[in-house]
Amino acid sequence: MKKTVLASNLLLLSTLLGLLLPTSKISTLVSFFKDTEVSADSTSDTQQADIDAATARVNDLASNITTEINNSDASEPVKQIAINNLAKLQKQLDSAVNTYKQGGTQSTFQSVVDTLILFINDVATPNDWQSAINLQTKIFAERTNEINEITETDPDNAAAKTNKDAMGTGKLKPIETLAKTKSKKSSITSICNTIIGIPLLSKSLQGTNSTSTPSTQDLKFANFILDSMAESREDAINALVTPTEDQKNEAVNALKTAYSDDKNQLNAPSVTLSDLQQMLPNFYKQFSNIVPTTDGNAASDSSKTNAIAALKAAYDTTKQTLDAVSGFDDAVKTALANAKTLLNQYTSQINAATSLSDVNTILNTGKNKIKSASYLYPTNDDVTATVKMIDDAAAAQIASINADTGASDSAKTTAITTVKNITSHYSQNAQAKNITLQVLKTIQTASVSSLKAITPIHDLTTKTVTASQLNTATNAIITAGNAKKTVIQNDPALLATDKEAAYTAIDGLVTTYTNQLKQATTTTALSQVQSAGVTAITNFQATQSVTTTSPVTQLITTKTTIIKPTNQKLVYAISSLKLYQSNQLKGKVIASYVKHRRTNRPVFKVLRTVKNDAGKKAYYVQNQVSGKKGYITTNAKSVAYTYYQTTPKQIRVISNGGLNLYKKSTLSGKQHHYQKGQSLKVHKLIKSGTMTRFQLMNGSYVTANKKLVISTAY
């Protein structure tokens, strides 16, 4: 019996992954999976009949898409771009076949084929590019006509000018440019989402506030956009040459049903202008996903089985999360019932789905809904009661501190300041948007215990610290750490790995500040360290990591951003800056940095450069002090190289601690120390890894770090 070692659940190996990620990323993904032995002659293994059927299916689909491409009115170069994009994917079948001839189950091989089918169906054709351009042209023309009717003296003139500017910056590129940059239908959708949802409805022509009911003109324009999107999609469906008339009619009927439902949502009395901005892009994406079901994109039994298994896994995770919750029996029971209902509902929808894209859409929606069921949300009364509980506990503790006859006024002030910091932090957390009932309950107990632990240090005028004083301060630090850990433990939005990382970080803070307490030589210093430590621990925020999925799930359910490797470099923030979890540069913020003087600017190591859905570059970086990783803008107004890249004639030392002169470019062999303010003449710039050095006229070297020196002449 021939056996070979394959990575379990690793469907496309380096074949399909190679299209999306560089080699270094492939090896990382492969390492996530444990190797298991697969029998090459097992009855469940891939057979030649499976390979023949998959080959025919992929080739038939590719042939149909080629027909659609050639049937368009686009120029030959544009058609050729689409054909080349298709050919790159079609070739991946051979690699997959060769892999599974060595061993691998039928079900996993079928998943490979299903994934490949999804990618091929997502190949953009010239008609897709032209349809997007035509739709935008039509919508822009309507808005332009409305704007032109507004005179210079009209009160709405300012809003009209804003809309006109938005249209100027949001124009789509010519079809030739789209063909070169947007190879997938989904990437075209993202462009149109941005154009339709944000610029055109970001400002009301009649000055309506975004949170208010839209004006008659705004609603009329929103309905025009919806009508235009539906008409554009129906025209695109009917223009297809490979589906049968019955298949196209079925898709058009589905489109009309969706359009009718969307029309009702759009015109609901409770809808605000902000709602319109969010609805229209979602409607556009919904319409784009409605396609005729053909043999080429039909959902297979194995694709449905795999999707249902993924739904079940999401339910199991939600159940495990809810089972761990105590103190909310009724809420947990209701949530579990809701999750079970959602599992059954989306399982039925998957079984009824006819196309792979439908299965994929239902799966993603179902998983998100089931996961949301694990979040128990409080009422406004719950939040109000929690804030009052925190305020009452703070008031009681402040009263206790003020009544302490053994503490000086200075010690009382320090303790009260710490109490106020804790109160402010936990009150803000209690009122945070989308806070869960579990976290709110934990905040109640954590805040009270932390507040009660704050007592003033006695005898601040003494030069030595007593054992009793040290124990009191240490207890305050440890209590704050335990309280913060409890809050994190009960937060269902955090993964287990996120929680473990947070626990480690909190332990580190507790250790750091308890060590500092032991090193305090006066009670004044002891009080200051206690206050700083409790505040730092209380303000600690656990960071949500990006969920790592298996290559199977990643390929089937997500739109992968192509990541370009870059030579690692160091940059620093020259203005206020945010470190984001997502390369879209929005959403969850890992850390925020205010604008600092040049010598104190935060430095980041650039690990790679990426392009987000909007086509904008972002740096994936690691903060050189905290070690936090995330995405920052590449905008030259916000970040710059930490080290000089050009050679000035003269520099001045700006570091408060001065600057060392070295014999070697590796900055070894110290020769001299320059004081702040001294000027130095530069001979040339030397590169050394992520850093640069200046060789001075005397032949020796100094750093070219902009935080330590500044150019004064070029």
UniProtKB/TrEMBL annotation:
Residues 643-709 form the DUF5776 domain. This is DUF5776 domain-containing protein. The lineage of its organism: Bacteria, Bacillati, Bacillota, Bacilli, Lactobacillales.
